[in-house]
């Protein structure tokens, strides 16, 4: 019996998931190589020309594959680059938290469970099978170039240099597409048009003396590295997390009217579906802070010497990160961070030494959601998903329901208004809250948000179905996307395949079977229709 393409796709995805392609652990290097080879064989089986691009320092290879469009369009056909990654974050079931073996894909209640189903092996397989079906129908009007790396979960080590080295082999690119994120909830398809960038850095303070005993050597005359480090880090941020590095916020643009409308659409859609999300003003504020505000986080400390309460460590270091937003250049911010920390350390008058190391950085990205690839993606999503009911039929009543005449405006406070505000901070709206709903959202004011928007309260009685996906930004970072845009001079668009409850990077990662099938159909429409634009 001949299997359908969907059945073949599930078979290939199941085997793809079985490879423990964990880039962060050297013991899985062989599995990463075998997973890459298997992926290459899938491309070959559907007629794609393939290559395995080596990366520096022994990092995992990049799979390059090309599906050539209909020969009749050879002179004019466009080229779409699909970026993805076959590596995954670590997963084990030693604590019994997974309901399945994380590397044995299983279908349960309409969901595919397994590490990588959502991030990013499922979307990759959907895109491959979209091309395969178009090839069999002789309907592929563009060349689709797949660039699938094996180090995304480890900062895309070696990716940029490998792409530059093999740029001629990759060839020209007209558009870039990736599918490496998720919806805001479990019901409304989304399109992502912005990501924050990131700088990961290590700050280290060390002395010339060895580890000491506080009872024997501790005194006010001794410059203790850990004390110096704590005082130094305390100078980086002020109240409400405001970063004190000079000119840090200067390049950040104000909220445009066009983007303001997108936030209005998001809050109306989400709160109407889930009143437990609370006040739409707080939701808008929280999303802006996570998506279009730069921030600084201190992740962990590490000290020398044994874990003894009496020890004065000779060395102390901290890992920190800065999330950047469009118009902030990673190189510029990194240099400013080093200069600022050195200046503040000098003020301590310490005999110790301080060093700052930039471990990794990625540029922020902001796409043009009015361009051809976004509009083609928008139409493909709605053609496949169809009109989406704005409010489910069975929903709890909410005190937020008001008449249109009584809708009120939401104003995000300006900087000067914040300085006199109260400092109590309710729990912020996190990704898990958006996925599961929750009553407590942040109404705390931010020192760095200085834009004002007007949002009418959602009309929960409305039953008009949605005819567009939600346009969203995200707070995370994907190192490759802005690099690829710059390198090939082509615009990128980001298509989230999964739902908010997919648990990517967590236990019980999953992807709804419906989302996998519909993502394939969406890719198919984009690869078919985009060259006609």
From TrEMBL:
UniProt KW Transmembrane helix keyword: no
A Pfam match: Peptidase_M20
Matches recorded under InterPro entries: ArgE/DapE_CS, Cyt/Met_Dipeptidase, Peptidase_M20
Stretches the record annotates as Disordered: 411-445
Gene Ontology terms for molecular function: metal ion binding; peptidase activity
Presence of keyword Protease: yes
Any single biological process term in GO: proteolysis
Polar residues bias (residue ranges): 420-445
UniProtKB keywords: Hydrolase, Metal-binding, Protease
Alphabetized Gene3D superfamilies for the sequence: 3.30.70.360, Zn peptidases
Entry similarity comment: Belongs to the peptidase M20A family.
Protein name: Glutathione degradosome
Species for this entry: Aureobasidium melanogenum (Aureobasidium pullulans var. melanogenum)
Source organism phylogeny: Eukaryota, Fungi, Dikarya, Ascomycota, Pezizomycotina
């Amino acid at each position: 019996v001949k299997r359908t393409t969907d059945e073949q796709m599930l078979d290939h995805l199941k085997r793809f998931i079985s490879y423990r392609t964990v880039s962060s652990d050297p013991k899985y290097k062989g599995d990463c190589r075998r997973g890459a080879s298997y992926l290459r064989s899938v491309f070959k089986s559907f007629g794609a020309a393939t290559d395995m691009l080596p990366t520096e320092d022994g990092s995992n290879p990049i799979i390059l594959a090309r599906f050539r469009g209909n020969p009749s369009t050879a002179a004019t056909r466009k080229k779409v680059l699909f970026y993805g990654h076959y590596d995954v974050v670590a997963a084990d079931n030693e604590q019994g938290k997974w309901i399945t073996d994380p590397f044995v894909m299983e279908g349960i209640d309409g969901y595919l469970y397994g590490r990588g189903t959502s991030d990013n092996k499922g979307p990759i397989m959907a895109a491959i099978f979209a091309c395969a079906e178009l090839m069999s129908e002789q309907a592929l009007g563009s060349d689709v170039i797949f660039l699938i790396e094996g180090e995304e979960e480890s900062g895309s080590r070696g990716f940029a240099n490998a792409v530059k080295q093999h740029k001629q082999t990759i060839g020209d690119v007209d558009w870039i597409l990736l599918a490496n994120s998720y919806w805001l909830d479990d019901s409304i398809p989304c399109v992502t048009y912005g990501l924050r960038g990131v700088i990961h850095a290590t700050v280290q303070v060390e002395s010339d003396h060895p580890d000491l005993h506080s009872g024997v050597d501790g005194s006010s005359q001794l410059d203790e590295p850990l004390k110096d480090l704590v005082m130094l880090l305390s100078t980086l941020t002020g109240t409400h997390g405001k970063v004190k590095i000079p000119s840090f916020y200067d390049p950040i643009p104000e909220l445009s009217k066009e983007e303001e409308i997108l936030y209005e659409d998001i809050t109306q859609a989400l709160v109407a579906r889930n009143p437990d999300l609370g006040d739409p003003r707080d939701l808008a504020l929280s999303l802006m802070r996570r998506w279009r505000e730069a921030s600084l986080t201190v992740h962990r400390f590490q000290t020398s010497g044994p874990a003894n309460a009496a020890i004065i460590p000779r060395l102390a270091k901290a890992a920190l990160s800065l999330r950047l937003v469009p118009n902030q250049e990673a190189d510029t911010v990194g240099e400013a961070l080093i200069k600022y920390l050195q200046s503040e350390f000098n003020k301590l008058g310490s005999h110790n030494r301080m060093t700052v190391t930039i471990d990794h950085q990625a540029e922020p990205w902001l796409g043009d959601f009015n361009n051809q690839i976004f509009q083609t993606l928008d139409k493909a999503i709605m053609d496949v998903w169809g009109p989406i009911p704005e409010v489910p039929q069975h929903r709890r009543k909410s005190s937020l329901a008001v008449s249109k005449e009584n809708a009120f405006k939401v104003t995000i406070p300006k900087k000067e208004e914040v300085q006199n505000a109260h400092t109590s901070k309710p729990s912020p709206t996190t990704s898990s809250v958006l996925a599961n709903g929750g009553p407590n959202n942040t109404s705390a004011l931010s020192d760095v948000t200085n834009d004002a928007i007007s949002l009418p309260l959602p009309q929960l009685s409305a039953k008009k179905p949605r005819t567009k996906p939600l346009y969203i930004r995200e707070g995370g970072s994907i190192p490759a996307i802005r690099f690829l845009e710059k390198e090939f001079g082509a615009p990128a668009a980001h298509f989230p395949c999964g739902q908010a409850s997919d648990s990517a990077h967590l236990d019980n990662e999953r992807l709804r079977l419906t989302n996998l099938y519909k993502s394939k159909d969406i890719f198919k429409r984009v690869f078919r229709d985009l060259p006609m634009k």
